[in-house]
Specification:
The complex is a heterodimer of chains A (252) and B (72).
Chain A (H helix, E strand, L loop, with lengths): L3 E5 L17 H16 L5 E4 L15 E2 L7 H11 L4 E7 H7 L1 H10 L4 E6 L2 E2 L5 E2 L27 H5 L5 E8 L3 H19 L4 E7 L3 H4 L3 H12 L6 E5 L6
Parallel strand pairs in A: 2-3, 2-4, 4-5, 5-9, 8-9
Antiparallel strand pairs in A: 6-7, 8-10
Chain B lengths: L2 E5 L9 H5 L5 E3 L11 E3 L11 H5 L5 E6 L2
Antiparallel strand pairs in B: 1-4, 2-3
The chains are: A alpha/beta (252), B alpha+beta (72).
Chain lengths: 252, 72
Protein backbone atom coordinates (compact mmCIF):
# COMPACT_ATOMS: atom_id res chain seq x y z
CA UNK A 1 0.00 0.00 0.00
CA UNK A 2 1.41 3.38 -1.07
CA UNK A 3 2.72 5.67 1.68
CA UNK A 4 1.55 3.24 4.37
CA UNK A 5 3.49 1.02 6.71
CA UNK A 6 2.20 -2.38 7.82
CA UNK A 7 2.03 -2.44 11.61
CA UNK A 8 0.02 -5.57 12.37
CA UNK A 9 -0.43 -8.66 10.22
CA UNK A 10 -0.67 -12.40 10.35
CA UNK A 11 2.20 -13.89 12.41
CA UNK A 12 4.95 -15.62 10.45
CA UNK A 13 4.46 -19.04 12.05
CA UNK A 14 0.68 -19.23 11.69
CA UNK A 15 0.02 -21.10 8.45
CA UNK A 16 -2.00 -19.40 5.72
CA UNK A 17 -4.95 -21.78 5.94
CA UNK A 18 -8.51 -21.22 7.15
CA UNK A 19 -9.01 -22.91 10.52
CA UNK A 20 -11.84 -25.27 11.43
CA UNK A 21 -12.92 -23.46 14.61
CA UNK A 22 -16.41 -22.00 14.98
CA UNK A 23 -16.83 -18.26 14.39
CA UNK A 24 -15.66 -16.30 17.43
CA UNK A 25 -13.82 -19.22 19.07
CA UNK A 26 -11.04 -18.38 21.53
CA UNK A 27 -8.79 -21.22 20.33
CA UNK A 28 -7.85 -19.39 17.16
CA UNK A 29 -6.90 -16.26 19.14
CA UNK A 30 -4.66 -18.36 21.40
CA UNK A 31 -3.05 -20.06 18.37
CA UNK A 32 -2.19 -16.64 17.01
CA UNK A 33 -0.73 -15.50 20.35
CA UNK A 34 1.45 -18.63 20.51
CA UNK A 35 2.70 -18.01 16.96
CA UNK A 36 3.49 -14.39 17.86
CA UNK A 37 5.34 -15.31 21.07
CA UNK A 38 7.35 -18.03 19.28
CA UNK A 39 8.33 -15.47 16.64
CA UNK A 40 9.28 -12.82 19.20
CA UNK A 41 11.36 -15.17 21.34
CA UNK A 42 12.89 -16.68 18.16
CA UNK A 43 12.37 -20.27 19.36
CA UNK A 44 10.67 -21.74 16.27
CA UNK A 45 13.54 -24.18 15.62
CA UNK A 46 13.49 -25.58 19.13
CA UNK A 47 9.81 -25.40 20.11
CA UNK A 48 7.84 -28.64 20.46
CA UNK A 49 4.09 -28.51 21.01
CA UNK A 50 1.97 -31.36 22.37
CA UNK A 51 -1.57 -30.80 21.04
CA UNK A 52 -4.54 -32.22 22.97
CA UNK A 53 -7.57 -34.30 22.23
CA UNK A 54 -10.44 -31.89 21.81
CA UNK A 55 -11.23 -29.03 19.48
CA UNK A 56 -7.55 -28.11 19.12
CA UNK A 57 -6.49 -31.62 18.07
CA UNK A 58 -5.61 -30.28 14.62
CA UNK A 59 -3.32 -27.54 15.99
CA UNK A 60 -0.49 -28.97 13.86
CA UNK A 61 -2.29 -27.74 10.75
CA UNK A 62 -2.09 -24.15 11.95
CA UNK A 63 1.01 -23.47 14.08
CA UNK A 64 4.23 -24.04 12.18
CA UNK A 65 6.30 -25.79 14.89
CA UNK A 66 7.14 -29.43 15.60
CA UNK A 67 4.27 -31.29 17.22
CA UNK A 68 3.75 -34.68 18.85
CA UNK A 69 0.18 -35.79 19.36
CA UNK A 70 -0.48 -37.32 22.79
CA UNK A 71 -3.22 -39.70 23.88
CA UNK A 72 -6.17 -38.08 25.58
CA UNK A 73 -4.97 -36.29 28.71
CA UNK A 74 -1.40 -37.55 28.54
CA UNK A 75 0.08 -34.29 27.24
CA UNK A 76 2.24 -33.48 30.25
CA UNK A 77 3.55 -37.09 30.41
CA UNK A 78 4.63 -36.93 26.75
CA UNK A 79 6.10 -33.46 27.33
CA UNK A 80 8.10 -34.81 30.28
CA UNK A 81 9.66 -37.45 28.04
CA UNK A 82 10.38 -34.90 25.31
CA UNK A 83 12.01 -32.47 27.71
CA UNK A 84 14.16 -35.14 29.35
CA UNK A 85 15.41 -36.44 25.99
CA UNK A 86 15.91 -32.96 24.49
CA UNK A 87 16.57 -30.59 27.39
CA UNK A 88 17.49 -27.66 25.13
CA UNK A 89 14.04 -27.57 23.51
CA UNK A 90 11.07 -25.44 24.57
CA UNK A 91 8.32 -28.00 25.18
CA UNK A 92 4.75 -26.90 25.74
CA UNK A 93 1.42 -28.68 25.90
CA UNK A 94 -1.83 -27.18 24.70
CA UNK A 95 -4.77 -28.65 26.58
CA UNK A 96 -8.46 -28.01 27.05
CA UNK A 97 -10.49 -28.50 30.19
CA UNK A 98 -11.60 -32.04 29.40
CA UNK A 99 -8.07 -33.04 28.49
CA UNK A 100 -6.30 -31.37 31.40
CA UNK A 101 -8.80 -31.11 34.26
CA UNK A 102 -10.71 -34.39 33.78
CA UNK A 103 -8.80 -37.24 32.17
CA UNK A 104 -5.30 -35.79 32.48
CA UNK A 105 -5.37 -34.64 36.11
CA UNK A 106 -3.03 -37.38 37.36
CA UNK A 107 -0.39 -36.67 34.70
CA UNK A 108 -0.64 -32.94 35.30
CA UNK A 109 -0.33 -33.09 39.09
CA UNK A 110 2.68 -35.39 39.04
CA UNK A 111 4.46 -33.45 36.27
CA UNK A 112 3.89 -30.24 38.23
CA UNK A 113 5.01 -31.86 41.47
CA UNK A 114 8.23 -33.12 39.89
CA UNK A 115 8.87 -29.59 38.70
CA UNK A 116 9.38 -30.57 35.07
CA UNK A 117 10.56 -27.62 32.98
CA UNK A 118 7.55 -27.63 30.67
CA UNK A 119 4.81 -25.11 29.93
CA UNK A 120 1.12 -25.93 29.82
CA UNK A 121 -1.37 -23.75 27.96
CA UNK A 122 -4.71 -24.59 29.55
CA UNK A 123 -7.73 -23.40 27.56
CA UNK A 124 -10.68 -23.17 29.94
CA UNK A 125 -14.04 -22.69 28.27
CA UNK A 126 -16.19 -24.52 30.81
CA UNK A 127 -17.59 -27.21 28.47
CA UNK A 128 -16.45 -30.18 26.40
CA UNK A 129 -16.37 -28.49 23.02
CA UNK A 130 -15.64 -31.25 20.50
CA UNK A 131 -18.04 -33.85 21.91
CA UNK A 132 -21.02 -31.51 21.92
CA UNK A 133 -21.08 -29.32 25.02
CA UNK A 134 -21.21 -31.72 27.99
CA UNK A 135 -20.35 -30.64 31.54
CA UNK A 136 -16.63 -30.30 32.25
CA UNK A 137 -14.95 -30.13 35.68
CA UNK A 138 -14.64 -26.37 35.15
CA UNK A 139 -18.31 -25.71 34.32
CA UNK A 140 -19.76 -22.88 36.43
CA UNK A 141 -22.38 -23.61 39.08
CA UNK A 142 -25.74 -23.04 37.39
CA UNK A 143 -24.36 -23.21 33.85
CA UNK A 144 -26.55 -25.16 31.43
CA UNK A 145 -24.85 -27.84 29.34
CA UNK A 146 -26.22 -30.86 27.47
CA UNK A 147 -25.62 -33.13 30.51
CA UNK A 148 -26.80 -30.54 33.04
CA UNK A 149 -29.97 -29.15 31.39
CA UNK A 150 -31.11 -27.46 34.61
CA UNK A 151 -27.67 -26.02 35.35
CA UNK A 152 -24.73 -27.48 37.27
CA UNK A 153 -25.77 -28.41 40.79
CA UNK A 154 -22.99 -27.88 43.32
CA UNK A 155 -24.43 -30.58 45.64
CA UNK A 156 -24.48 -33.43 43.12
CA UNK A 157 -21.77 -32.26 40.69
CA UNK A 158 -19.47 -30.26 42.98
CA UNK A 159 -18.12 -26.78 42.41
CA UNK A 160 -15.85 -25.94 39.42
CA UNK A 161 -12.22 -27.01 39.70
CA UNK A 162 -9.76 -24.13 39.93
CA UNK A 163 -6.62 -25.63 38.45
CA UNK A 164 -4.22 -22.71 39.12
CA UNK A 165 -5.08 -22.51 42.83
CA UNK A 166 -5.05 -26.30 42.96
CA UNK A 167 -1.45 -26.52 41.71
CA UNK A 168 -0.06 -23.51 43.57
CA UNK A 169 0.89 -25.31 46.84
CA UNK A 170 3.12 -27.77 44.94
CA UNK A 171 6.86 -27.10 45.24
CA UNK A 172 7.57 -27.83 41.57
CA UNK A 173 5.38 -25.09 40.10
CA UNK A 174 7.16 -21.85 39.23
CA UNK A 175 4.65 -19.76 37.31
CA UNK A 176 0.86 -20.02 37.33
CA UNK A 177 -1.37 -17.38 35.82
CA UNK A 178 -5.00 -17.05 34.78
CA UNK A 179 -5.89 -14.76 31.89
CA UNK A 180 -8.69 -14.32 29.38
CA UNK A 181 -9.16 -13.60 25.66
CA UNK A 182 -12.50 -11.78 25.64
CA UNK A 183 -11.21 -8.26 24.91
CA UNK A 184 -8.13 -6.71 23.24
CA UNK A 185 -6.74 -5.65 26.63
CA UNK A 186 -6.97 -9.16 28.05
CA UNK A 187 -5.52 -10.64 24.84
CA UNK A 188 -2.40 -8.51 25.31
CA UNK A 189 -2.17 -9.61 28.95
CA UNK A 190 -2.50 -13.24 27.85
CA UNK A 191 0.36 -12.80 25.39
CA UNK A 192 2.51 -11.36 28.16
CA UNK A 193 1.68 -14.31 30.44
CA UNK A 194 2.51 -16.85 27.70
CA UNK A 195 5.84 -15.11 27.09
CA UNK A 196 6.60 -15.14 30.80
CA UNK A 197 5.72 -18.84 31.04
CA UNK A 198 8.12 -19.64 28.18
CA UNK A 199 10.81 -17.51 29.84
CA UNK A 200 10.28 -19.47 33.08
CA UNK A 201 10.87 -22.69 31.16
CA UNK A 202 13.92 -21.35 29.34
CA UNK A 203 15.42 -20.25 32.69
CA UNK A 204 14.81 -23.81 33.96
CA UNK A 205 12.85 -22.63 36.98
CA UNK A 206 10.17 -25.33 37.01
CA UNK A 207 6.65 -26.08 35.84
CA UNK A 208 4.67 -23.20 34.34
CA UNK A 209 1.01 -23.02 33.36
CA UNK A 210 -1.20 -20.32 31.84
CA UNK A 211 -4.93 -20.88 32.25
CA UNK A 212 -6.82 -18.95 29.58
CA UNK A 213 -10.56 -18.32 29.88
CA UNK A 214 -11.82 -18.75 26.35
CA UNK A 215 -15.18 -18.29 24.71
CA UNK A 216 -17.17 -21.16 23.16
CA UNK A 217 -20.12 -19.49 21.40
CA UNK A 218 -21.46 -22.71 19.83
CA UNK A 219 -21.77 -24.72 23.02
CA UNK A 220 -22.76 -21.81 25.25
CA UNK A 221 -25.55 -21.11 22.71
CA UNK A 222 -24.60 -17.43 22.59
CA UNK A 223 -23.40 -15.07 19.88
CA UNK A 224 -19.66 -14.31 19.71
CA UNK A 225 -20.12 -10.86 21.26
CA UNK A 226 -22.46 -12.14 24.00
CA UNK A 227 -20.05 -14.95 24.89
CA UNK A 228 -17.28 -12.37 25.44
CA UNK A 229 -19.66 -10.51 27.71
CA UNK A 230 -20.49 -13.72 29.56
CA UNK A 231 -16.79 -14.30 30.35
CA UNK A 232 -16.71 -10.82 31.89
CA UNK A 233 -19.93 -11.26 33.90
CA UNK A 234 -20.16 -14.99 34.58
CA UNK A 235 -16.69 -16.53 34.54
CA UNK A 236 -14.30 -13.90 35.91
CA UNK A 237 -16.15 -13.59 39.29
CA UNK A 238 -15.66 -17.36 39.78
CA UNK A 239 -12.23 -17.59 38.15
CA UNK A 240 -10.35 -14.43 39.25
CA UNK A 241 -7.69 -13.32 36.78
CA UNK A 242 -4.07 -12.61 37.56
CA UNK A 243 -0.77 -14.27 38.41
CA UNK A 244 -1.58 -16.96 40.98
CA UNK A 245 1.99 -18.00 41.73
CA UNK A 246 5.38 -16.71 40.70
CA UNK A 247 8.38 -18.23 42.38
CA UNK A 248 11.08 -15.71 43.15
CA UNK A 249 14.47 -17.10 42.20
CA UNK A 250 17.53 -15.94 44.05
CA UNK A 251 19.93 -13.99 41.86
CA UNK A 252 23.00 -16.09 41.19
CA UNK B 1 -6.63 9.40 6.97
CA UNK B 2 -4.10 8.07 9.46
CA UNK B 3 -4.55 4.38 8.98
CA UNK B 4 -6.39 1.70 7.09
CA UNK B 5 -7.05 -2.02 7.32
CA UNK B 6 -7.21 -4.87 4.86
CA UNK B 7 -9.54 -7.80 5.56
CA UNK B 8 -9.09 -11.11 3.73
CA UNK B 9 -12.78 -11.61 3.11
CA UNK B 10 -12.46 -15.17 1.85
CA UNK B 11 -11.35 -16.35 5.32
CA UNK B 12 -13.77 -14.24 7.41
CA UNK B 13 -16.37 -16.12 9.48
CA UNK B 14 -18.57 -13.14 10.33
CA UNK B 15 -18.14 -13.46 14.11
CA UNK B 16 -18.41 -9.69 14.58
CA UNK B 17 -15.69 -9.33 17.22
CA UNK B 18 -13.79 -6.73 15.13
CA UNK B 19 -16.96 -4.63 14.86
CA UNK B 20 -17.30 -4.68 18.64
CA UNK B 21 -13.61 -3.82 19.12
CA UNK B 22 -13.45 -0.88 16.65
CA UNK B 23 -13.67 2.39 18.65
CA UNK B 24 -14.62 4.37 15.51
CA UNK B 25 -17.31 2.03 14.22
CA UNK B 26 -15.55 1.75 10.85
CA UNK B 27 -16.26 -1.94 10.26
CA UNK B 28 -19.58 -3.41 9.21
CA UNK B 29 -20.97 -6.72 7.95
CA UNK B 30 -20.95 -6.92 4.15
CA UNK B 31 -24.09 -7.64 2.16
CA UNK B 32 -22.17 -9.89 -0.22
CA UNK B 33 -21.59 -13.52 0.68
CA UNK B 34 -18.07 -15.04 0.57
CA UNK B 35 -16.76 -18.43 -0.63
CA UNK B 36 -17.48 -20.05 2.74
CA UNK B 37 -21.10 -18.78 2.81
CA UNK B 38 -20.48 -16.18 5.51
CA UNK B 39 -21.22 -12.47 5.29
CA UNK B 40 -17.69 -11.11 5.86
CA UNK B 41 -16.66 -7.99 7.74
CA UNK B 42 -15.94 -4.98 5.57
CA UNK B 43 -14.00 -1.77 6.15
CA UNK B 44 -15.89 1.50 5.71
CA UNK B 45 -13.70 3.14 3.06
CA UNK B 46 -16.05 6.03 2.28
CA UNK B 47 -15.86 7.86 5.60
CA UNK B 48 -12.44 6.63 6.60
CA UNK B 49 -11.97 7.34 10.29
CA UNK B 50 -9.39 4.62 10.93
CA UNK B 51 -6.54 5.67 13.21
CA UNK B 52 -4.61 2.45 12.80
CA UNK B 53 -5.01 1.49 16.48
CA UNK B 54 -5.06 -2.19 15.59
CA UNK B 55 -7.69 -3.34 18.11
CA UNK B 56 -9.62 -5.16 15.36
CA UNK B 57 -6.51 -7.13 14.36
CA UNK B 58 -5.77 -7.99 18.01
CA UNK B 59 -9.31 -9.29 18.47
CA UNK B 60 -9.76 -11.08 15.11
CA UNK B 61 -9.76 -14.87 15.80
CA UNK B 62 -8.85 -15.69 12.20
CA UNK B 63 -5.83 -13.31 12.10
CA UNK B 64 -6.90 -12.00 8.70
CA UNK B 65 -6.83 -8.25 9.39
CA UNK B 66 -3.74 -6.29 8.36
CA UNK B 67 -3.32 -2.81 9.80
CA UNK B 68 -1.45 -0.05 7.96
CA UNK B 69 -0.42 3.36 9.28
CA UNK B 70 0.77 6.44 7.43
CA UNK B 71 4.53 6.86 7.21
CA UNK B 72 5.75 9.84 9.18
Amino acid sequence: MKGMKKVIGRPKYLKEVPNHYCPGCGHSIIHRLLAEVIEELDIRDRAICIPPCGCAVLAYYYIDVDMVEAAHGRGTAVATGMKRCLPDRVVFTYQGDGDLAAIGTAELIHSANRGESITTIFVNNGVYGMTGGQMAPTTMVGQKTTTTPKGRNSVTDGPPLKMCEFLSPLDGTAFLARTSVHSPKHIQKTKKAIRQAFQTQMNDEGFSMVEILSQCPSNWKLSSVDSCRWIEEGMIPQFPLGVVKQRQTEPS
Amino acid sequence: MKGTILIKKAMCKSCGLCIEACPKGSIFISKKINEKSYFPAEFDKKNNECTGCGLCAVMCPEAIIEVYREKK
